[in-house]
Amino acid sequence: MPARPEGEASARVLARLYCPPNERVLLGALCSLEREIGASLAPRLDHQLAHARLGWWQEECALCARGQPRHPLTREIAARCPEATLREGLCGLTDVATWDLAAATFATRRELHAYCERWSAAMIELWARLSAPHTERTQLRSLGRALR
After folding, report:
1. pLDDT at res. 42
2. Distance (Å, rounded) from C-alpha 102 to C-alpha 108?
3. Which helix (H) or strand (E) holds 72?
């Protein structure tokens, strides 16, 4: 999760502003969680400490998927998203952060799609299932992949 261009941050603010009120809290919690995990990629942060932080967040996301979150953000997400299979996607945020920390490059379009789909499972699928519960996950994943 490299430094974000100003427009991307603005897009998130606009998405929160214009989404239905019952979805704002979840979207805010997801964006905050992504920011917290992304803080592990700060340039001046010791590399071993970055890995330790990502490991902690990976465990926290797994606990959230099992319905046992400890952190206030993951508690909020679990409360707003009762479907455990969707919460499992949260680990995608730590996966993409780990790839970013390693400065991984993608040899194939398939690898790039996998990277983008991990993010999509965490952000787009989880959030969009509230507003469009009958939308197929493959459609949401495709949308999220394109957004990433």
Report:
1. 94
2. 17
3. helix 72-80
Contact criterion met (CB below 8 Å) for 37 and 1: yes
Q: Which sign does the torsion angle of CA 33, 124, 121, 79 carry? A: positive
Residue with the larger pLDDT of the pair 140 and 93:
93
Tokens matching residue 116: 């983008």
pTM above 0.85, yes or no: no
Contacts 24+ apart (CB under 8 A), 110-118: 113/145, 115/148, 116/144, 116/145, 116/146, 116/148, 117/92, 117/141, 117/144, 117/145, 118/89, 118/91, 118/92
Residues 24 and 16: their CA atoms lie apart, in Å, by: 6
pLDDT, mean over the chain? 85
Residue whose tokens read 């479907």: 83
